[in-house]
Amino acid sequence: MTKVNREAVVTEALGLLDEVGLDAVSTRRLARRLGVEQPSLYWHFRTKKELLGAMAEAAMAPHTTAPLPTPDDDWRAWFLDNTRSFRRTLLGRRDGARLHAGSTPTGDLDRIRRKMEFLVASGVPECDAQMAMLAAGRFTVGSVLEEQADTPPGDSADLPADVPRIDYESAFEAGLALILDGLTHRTAATPRPA
């Protein structure tokens, strides 16, 4: 029997996800792919939910390893770049948004705190910064869920001719601009402490 470690299980599980999609990922299939018996996976992950959480965390690596903002960064440009990075990362995996939805970013909490501290130090009221980050994150996950559910992408053969086709990137950018515009307006209207 082949010996595997936790990292190898997650790597192979993500490969399986990219091949067959989230609905077809099973511990039985994963064990077969790894060349082990299914019960040996429980040595590393007690439940499928625990495995999916580890997969979600690993899938977010491109975003969670991106450089943190510096005090010299413009908070508006950073907010846009950060949200776009999140979108690219979700799109980088088949069913990436579904895998991420509902997961808890335990490995990213320090980075999230530092991002929030940057926004607040840049003059964004703390409550508004929290709500904007939450809104942008949920908007991004929802946008990518819709985009990844559109199979084949852009196929609108069932729609009437007068219904426009969705350009997902343009729609995402327009929604992101609305979130940023609202946050900018609220920040400008809030007096800065002396």
TrEMBL record:
Tell me, what is an example of a GO biological process annotation in this record? negative regulation of DNA-templated transcription
Which residues mediate DNA binding here? 26-45
Instruction: Tell me which UniProt keywords the record has, alphabetically.
Output: DNA-binding, Repressor, Transcription, Transcription regulation
**Database matches in Pfam families:** TetR_C_1 (PF02909), TetR_N (PF00440)
Q: Which GO terms describe its molecular function?
A: DNA-binding transcription factor activity; transcription cis-regulatory region binding
Gene3D superfamilies, alphabetized: Homeodomain-like (1.10.10.60), Tetracycline Repressor, domain 2 (1.10.357.10)
Protein name as catalogued: TetR family transcriptional regulator
Start and end residues of each HTH tetR-type domain = 3-63
Q: Which domain of life is it from?
A: Bacteria
